[in-house]
Amino acid sequence: MKPKFLITSFTSCSGCIVDIISSDIFPVFLERVTLTHFPFITDDNIIQDCDVALIEGCISEENQIAMLKSIRHHAKKVYALGTCAAFGGILSLSEEKRADPLSDYIEVNGIIPGCPPPSQLLGNVLIRLIEGRELELSNKNMCANCPITEKIDKNSATKILKFYPDSDEIEPKEETTCFLKRGILCMGPITREGCEYECIKQGIPCEGCMGPVSKDFTSNMVNFLSIIDISEKLIKNNAFFYRFSKPRLWREK
């Protein structure tokens, strides 16, 4: 019997759903599962019993909570699809809107991080879910296997002066060096690996969309900043503290 899947979205850009639909594995996925609810491609809006629910997006409105809990009631397993569902996402930058991860309201069985999830990771996840296997995410940070980490001079401290490279520095270079050693803030030390280093390969530092290996993003950020020399101008910018999530105490205010 084919496993039953529910796929839906709350507050998001729909990029994670689009990532599923445009993936090479999607035709195979459609052949091997029964979709009980997928508003992007079906007209059925009734929440039915299912084996797996994939939910994209954060909770930003009160009326979304009841639907989320209904899905949890009908699903054997629920997975947070993408950074917004897993951690709150980019809406966390807003001072007006809430951006709560699904886990604030229901138990989730796992997360599929990324903004959107990397294609290779997403493909592997879909196969594992179809086959009824548990998800496996790396327990290492981005620096563990970063293609430019070996160029770090660990005995030399560099002051962090900017968030991104200048425009003439963004083109990928074979002989590039660690962003931190170039005075550019990179979230690699506190971010889970698994994205295939797509941003770094294009000459852009890690922003942290894969989320932390443990604890929450903000606590890891505070610890990280305490051991690097960052300019006063940058540290006064609260945006990077809440780039993809807010700490629970802030969300509960």
Summarize the structure.
The chain has helices at residues 15-21, 26-32, 63-74, 83-87, 119-130, 198-201, 217-225, 232-235, 248-251; strands spanning 4-9, 34-37, 50-56, 75-81, 110-112. The protein is of the alpha/beta class. Strands 2-1-3-4-5 form a 5-stranded parallel sheet.
Give the mean pLDDT. 88
| Alpha-beta classification | alpha/beta
CATH topology of the largest domain: Rossmann fold
Enumerate the strands of the largest sheet in spatial order, edge to edge or round the barrel: 2-1-3-4-5
**Element order: H for helix, E for strand:** EHHEEHEHEHHHHH
Tell me, what's the shape? globular
Low-pLDDT regions: none
- Could you give me the name of the CATH homologous superfamily of the largest domain? NADH:ubiquinone oxidoreductase-like, 20kDa subunit
The number of domains is 2
Kindly state the number of beta strands.
5
Query: What radius of gyration results from the CA coordinates?
Result: 19 Å
**N/C terminus separation:** 46 Å
Helix content: 25-40%
For the biggest sheet, the summary is: 5 strands, parallel
Q: In percent, how much strand structure appears in the residues? A: 5-15%
